[in-house]
Specification:
This protein is an alpha+beta fold. The protein contains 13 helices and 10 strands. The chain has helices spanning about 5, 25-35, 35-60, 85-100, 105-115, 125-145, 145-170, 195-275, 285-310, 330-340, 355-375, 420-430, 455-460, and strands spanning about 65-70, 70-75, 175, 180-185, 345-350, 380-390, 395-400, 435-440, 445-450, 475-480. The chain is rod-shaped, with a radius of gyration of 45 Å.
Length: about 500
């Protein structure tokens, strides 16, 4: 199993973020962590060098009483290096080296393999193999878990105790003449039981010390890794949230700009076309229409400057901040469309819930609906606007009755299809939905349902900011007479 700290990707941070993310402490420790394979190979090379040195020591020890052969003194080979036991020795060294090489991925299996390889005659190779089991016992809690470390401790102590028991019961197995296995000691010459228990106990204490050091280092390693991973995760989430906020703000700006520009341009086109049609017959009315068109353009320009100024220069003193329009501003909106040539009728039922964000959404829905009526039904079209506010929801309906027969007809080339998509996003924020389509008897209807939030319902009416309802009677109330300009009866 791989170490978690080595397998998790690190987050480098967004370019220009100026955030220095934490790293594991210690330059040498970081190098060892980043070059784990090189460290493992080095350990294997050192182990094999120790095995070779142990063989050399056994050869030197066997040359104490050499047999002369043609004047040359040759050392006697240890039993485990004679044929065919040398194959067992080579297999043992290869198995332990493999366990050391993959100790990070399979530490517990490697520990069991090394413990088994300690059985049998090994001569001086017992020393490098004993050091190998120390490394494997250390690797289990560091690269696996604390529970796996205690299991490894049990395997190591149990294997050592079993080896001592076998040696005491049948004597240590040694290799004499080639191919023969004999015991060096008779079973009756076994050591005292107390000495055996003390030896096992001291070995267990030594293994326990290795285990506790490994558990401490492994827990610290995992703790630091968790802290660093959390820091990288928080940095990644911060940048993702910033990107989402930028995208949401761009979408909001696009919706606001569309509402401002589309409404104002549609009204200006309607007023300009009406003024052009009556310029010769009613020059005063045409001039008045052009004045209102210019006022609409200046109003739109001021709103765009205010919006862009708040975005580009939020700390500038010359930026003018005004409340967002809401239901209270609907009569003024109706008057503007009345001047543009359509015949709207506004009905507001119920009282405000105090949610200014939802009031802005209602205003934009009505604005978009009337703009579409002016675009596609044309001047002279009749339209009913109803805002019904109940305790749990707000129902907004904009319903027109189609193109006026003989009228100027709809405006062309001003629709982009983004208005309804923007309204869907606005309504979705409040958990509502929007419907639009033709209605029986002719005309088009736009309807939006916005649920009232629980916080707004529980807030006292008199304590709600901007909770004054639009002054409108419960019955439908027409707001303005039919406009004199443009003349809907005059052909376009």
């Amino acid at each position: 199993m791989n170490d978690r700290s080595e397998s998790l990707p690190r987050y480098s941070g967004a370019e220009g973020s100026g955030v220095r993310l934490p790293r594991p402490p210690g330059m040498l420790r970081r190098w060892v962590t980043n070059h784990g394979r090189a460290v493992d190979i080095t350990i294997v090379v050192v182990y094999l060098f120790g095995c070779a040195l142990a063989v050399l020591l056994d050869l030197i020890a066997g040359s104490a009483d050499p047999e002369p052969l043609t004047g040359i003194f040759l050392p006697a080979l240890p039993g485990y290096l004679t044929w065919p036991w040398i194959l067992v020795a080579l297999f043992r060294a290869a198995a332990v080296a493999t366990a050391l090489l993959f100790r990070r991925r399979f530490p517990l299996i490697g520990l069991a393999i090394v413990a088994v390889m300690l059985f049998g005659e090994q001569g001086a190779q017992t020393l490098p193999n004993s050091v190998a089991i120390w490394f494997m016992l250390y690797a289990v809690p560091v690269y696996r878990s604390v529970a796996a470390g205690w299991v490894g401790f049990g395997i190591a102590v149990g294997a050592y105790a079993l080896q001592v028991f076998i040696n005491e019961m049948w004597g240590p197995f040694t290799v004499g003449s080639p191919g023969a296995i004999v015991t060096a000691e008779a079973p009756g010459e076994s050591r005292d039981l107390f000495v055996i228990i003390v030896g096992i106990f001291m070995t267990a204490l030594f293994y326990l010390a290795i285990l506790l050091v490994a558990i401490n280092l492994g827990n610290r390693r995992r703790y630091l890794s968790a802290i660093i991973d959390r820091a990288h995760q928080l940095a990644r989430e911060r940048d993702q949230l910033a990107q989402l906020a930028v995208a949401e703000e761009r979408s909001r700006i696009a919706r606001e700009m569309h509402d401002i520009v589309a409404h104002s341009v549609s009204v200006m086109i309607a007023l300009s076309e009406g003024a052009a049609r009556v310029a010769e017959k009613a020059p005063d009315a045409a001039a008045d229409a052009m004045v209102r068109s210019a006022e609409t353009g200046r109003t739109a320009l001021a709103e765009m400057r205010r919006l862009l100024g708040a975005l580009t220069e939020p700390a500038a003193s010359e930026v003018e901040y005004v409340p967002q329009p809401g239901v209270d501003e609907l009569p003024e909106l109706i008057r503007g469309f009345t001047d543009a040539g359509i015949q709207p009728r506004l009905t507001v039922l119920g009282s405000a819930a105090g949610d200014r964000g939802q009031d802005l959404a209602v205003y934009r829905i009505v604005q978009e609906g009337l703009t579409n009526v002016l675009r596609y039904a044309g001047p002279g079209a009749r339209v009913d606007v109803t805002v019904d506010r109940s305790a749990d929801r707000t129902d907004v309906t904009v319903r027109d009755f189609g193109v006026v027969p003989g009228g100027p007809g709809p405006l062309s080339g001003v629709g982009s299809g983004r208005g309804l998509r923007g309204l869907e996003e606005r309504v979705r924020v409040f958990g509502g939905h929007i419907e639009s389509g033709p209605v029986p008897g002719g005309g088009w209807q736009l309807r939006a349902i916005l649920p009232v939030s629980a916080d707004a319902r529980e807030r006292p009416r008199d304590a709600s900011p901007g909770s004054e309802a639009v002054a409108a009677p419960p019955a439908p109330t027409p707001t303005a007479p039919e406009p004199p300009v443009p003349n809907p009866e005059e052909p376009s």
